[in-house]
């Protein structure tokens, strides 16, 4: 058993054999910035000051070579070979995270499956024990072959031990295949809560942006904001191809009656001006944001879904004056890299 010491915080925790450093930290209640836990997003990049590690599981593309030579490691795919001292880089020291519940395993029984669109499925489960989480966090389903797949909780913390997920079907996807075999009463195993997506209590107005299944963490955050009588202005840009791909429209309409200052702006990339829903726009979310927001410096932003969308919106908002530290992105990286496209 090795020990890890973090500087400058002085926090210490043990790391078990075969356990990556991030998982050990989370299980011991140590809060760190991280994202996908599969070595793809690089959010858990920190700096090894002392000790030996095995970081061969990290993709060579995850960290630039010069940073790797300077001691940069991804905690989610690095294993301790001795006691370690690690300098944590909380994104330039800008954000101290509030206490988060350490993740723990649960058994989940399927309560419902509903096709939302040809590509999106709603999965409802009941847990064997209640779960404490922050709206916006995610769960990891553990599958029989040992694979882990991440899905954001769509339901708010007030929903108790009944959780809802919005799952995108992926061709040849391991979890997508599991989903096809589920029926009412089927049992799943998951661990939760994970992630650092949650509504910061800054009092600043919010820009929330999601596409496709990226609505899941945002709907949880919006429902929780309504439960907490949150009064800050919230603009929610949701991207879909056409009005048939818009999901949870009734739930959003109900939230609009409970939130003090809420605008839902559906953006239809293949929509026509004649067939738009109320407040709807044609084009991608980036176009609507570019048109609507002149000065983004007043806002906090929450971006959820495809990494390319999060990156594009993040760049746009930064160009409009929003400091990067106030742009919180939950990038839905696949657990496995895409197979090369054949010519
Ligand atoms: C923090 C976090 C939260 C997430 N929350 C959600 C959520 O709420 N809902 C949701 O649907 N997804 C979510 N995801 C993404 C989801 O975990 C992955 O898409 C997952 O890998 C899909 O599992 P699978 O077993 O069906 O496919 P896999 O077996 O992982 O992948 C099969 C093939 O499909 C490709 N692939 C996988 N996912 C995608 C994708 N989304 N788009 C295009 N190609 C893909 C893979 O690269 C691979 O080639 C989240 C991811 C993260 C990191």
UniProtKB/TrEMBL annotation:
PROSITE patterns: 2FE2S_FER_1, 2FE2S_FER_2, FAD_FR. Residues 2-92 form the 2Fe-2S ferredoxin-type domain. Pfam families: FAD_binding_6, Fer2, NAD_binding_1. Its cofactor is FAD. Coiled coil: none annotated. Keywords: 2Fe-2S, Iron, Iron-sulfur, Metal-binding. Residues 103-200 form the FAD-binding FR-type domain. This is 2Fe-2S iron-sulfur cluster binding domain-containing protein. Gene3D superfamilies: 3.10.20.30, Nucleotide-binding domain of ferredoxin-NADP reductase (FNR) module, Translation factors. SUPFAM superfamilies: 2Fe-2S ferredoxin-like, Ferredoxin reductase-like, C-terminal NADP-linked domain, Riboflavin synthase domain-like. InterPro entries: 2Fe-2S_ferredoxin-like_sf (IPR036010), 2Fe-2S_ferredoxin-type (IPR001041), 2Fe2S_fd_BS (IPR006058), Beta-grasp_dom_sf (IPR012675), Cbr1-like_FAD-bd_dom (IPR008333), FAD-bd_FR_type (IPR017927), FNR_nucleotide-bd (IPR039261), MRET (IPR050415).
